Amino acid sequence: MNAPTSAQVIPFDEPATFPRAPRTLEDTGLPLLFLVELATKLLFVRGQMRLTEISHRLHLPATVLESLLAFMRAERVCEVMRRGETDGDILFELTDGGRARAAEYLGRCKYAGAAPVSLAAYVAQVERQSVTKMCVTRERVNDAFRGLVINSEVRDQLGAAMGSGRAVFLYGPAGAGKTFLAERLSLLLDGDIAVPHAILVDGEIIQVFDPLIHAPVDADGHQGGLDNLMRPDLRWVRCRRPMAITGGELTLRMLDLDYDASTGFYQAPPHVKANNGLFIVDDLGRQLIKPEQLMNRWIVPMDRRHDYLALHSGTKFTLPFDVVLVFSTNLMPSEVADPAFLRRLGYKIHIGPMNEDEYRNIFTAVCEERGVPFNQTAFTTLLNEYHKVHRQPLLACYPRDIINQIADLARYRGEPARLTPDALHWAWHNYFASR
Predict the structure, then answer these.
(1) Residue 200 placed within a domain
(2) Would you place residue 220 in the very low, low, confident or very high pLDDT band (cuts 50, 70, 90)?
(3) Would residue 6 count as lying in a domain?
(4) H helices then E strands: how many in the chain?
(5) What is the overall mean pLDDT for the chain?
(6) How many of the other CB atoms lie within 10 Å of CB of 315?
């Protein structure tokens, strides 16, 4: 496949740049016969269509489609049914021969959506908007974690880790706030990026854009005239940098291309959809696969910043591995990986219990949020007669969970929620299942 010949780009949010719309068939970077097949399937599925409608569905400018449709008419694949007042109103329909071809094409692949981009164009774009080009400063980190009770050393570690673009390993006891902090890192993702609807690799379509992961920005801001050559390439969606999170459901198979034999095209794996953003593996160690297997799968991508994937035909190719990879686990680093892998983990950050002042700050904040008056005497009782006696560490999750128990009981009884000895006793023993 040839890379797009139009190397010009339109800056839209530094350091990322947005590809410019192709002006010719060659500029698309896609084979002519592939475009014929895609347009034929679209006309078969949608029936008679105006040029404007075809342009909207394939996300290609009219100037490109005019050449394509002229070729298809010459090959007797489609014909003009009616001409309107403008070129955009020309109505196209498949010929009998075109419908026969469409049935054959759809038998191989049912994809009839936005035109994909070439593999070369995708690789180049991911590199232009790499996470390593983000600017993460102490000021931005302070803004992202404003209002949170977090150890200053941990805050600086997280900020430096995001700025490096290297993998992060968060470990500590359950309830210490690892997952919350990992998800909070998404606030440090800087700027917008271009995400393709799909890419074409060796004639096969791989869908990349996923509305569950990608958040479009100003999606309707560039739907201007059909022949506006200055507009962005609408095969790409302008999005915020993505965050994808996976937990105990993660398997090795999910990290490969997902081929659907019934439709004839692929879905990109989650870490590819998260390119130029954040990919969180939560609760490492709870997956059906062993942590060592997962680590071995990613040891090369983490080191070389690209991943090896394969089509069902056997064709192998590489894609960028441009994510800040975050592992969150209750296990110690030495329990999940060998020294060779641990060396590739840029940051190993322990998230542990809090001191009494930090715990009090969280407790008072939760009381204010839930409308429960804070009582210092009750809080001291909680520390001395419950945490210390039962040897429960001061974890970040406990204030909210305990206050929620008290509020639940008060709502059930139809009375105001208060920090009383009885309420604390009920909440503690209900939460920890102890007597």
Answers:
(1) yes
(2) low
(3) no
(4) 17, 19
(5) 89
(6) 12
pLDDT tens for residues 110-129?
Answer: 999 999 999 999 999 999 99
Return the DSSP state at 85.
Answer: S
How far is the C-alpha of 49 from the C-alpha of 281, rounded, in Å? 45
C-alpha 433: how far from chain center: 38
Cβ–Cβ under 8 Å, residues 265 and 271: no
| Average pLDDT of the residues in 304-321 | 94
Q: Tell me if 347 sits within 8 A of 160, measured CB to CB.
A: yes
Helix (H) or strand (E) segment spanning residue 422? helix 421-432
**Structural domain includes residue 80:** yes
Question: How far, CA to CA in Å, does 269 sit from each of 259, 297, 298, 303, 428?
Answer: 10, 13, 13, 19, 42
User: For 21-64, how does the pLDDT look when each residue is reduced to its tens digit (9 = 90+)?
Assistant: 999 999 999 999 999 999 999 999 999 999 999 999 999 999 99
Tokens of residue 386, six digits? 């419950």
- Least Cα distance to 59 among 193, 216, 192, 198 occurs for 198
How far the first Cα of the chain sits from its last, in Å, is 69
Percent of the chain having pLDDT more than 90?
72
pTM for this predicted structure = 0.86
Mean pLDDT to the nearest integer, 406-435: 89
Q: Do 65 and 189 reside in the same domain of the chain?
A: no
Number of structural domains (the chain) is: 3
Does residue 110 sit in the same domain as residue 131? no
Looking at 115, 137, 171, the residue that finishes a domain is 115
Domain with 189, as residue range(s), is: 126-350
Joined tokens for residue 43: 């006309």
Cβ(134)–Cβ(191) under 8 Å? yes
Sheet holding 78-82, edge to edge: 49-50, 91-94, 78-82
Q: What's the whole-number mean pLDDT along residues 81-94? A: 80
Residue 63 forms part of a structural domain:
yes
CATH number of the domain to which 89 belongs: 1.10.10.10
Distance CA 61, CA 399 (A): 56
* Integer CA distances (angstroms), 207 to 118, 181, 260, 264, in order: 12, 30, 11, 11
Residues 137 and 271 in one domain: yes
Q: Tokens 């774009």 map to which residue?
A: 125
Q: Are residues 247 and 382 in the same domain?
A: no
* Tokens (6 digits) for 291: 């942590």
Q: Give yes or no: residues 277 and 411 share one domain.
A: no
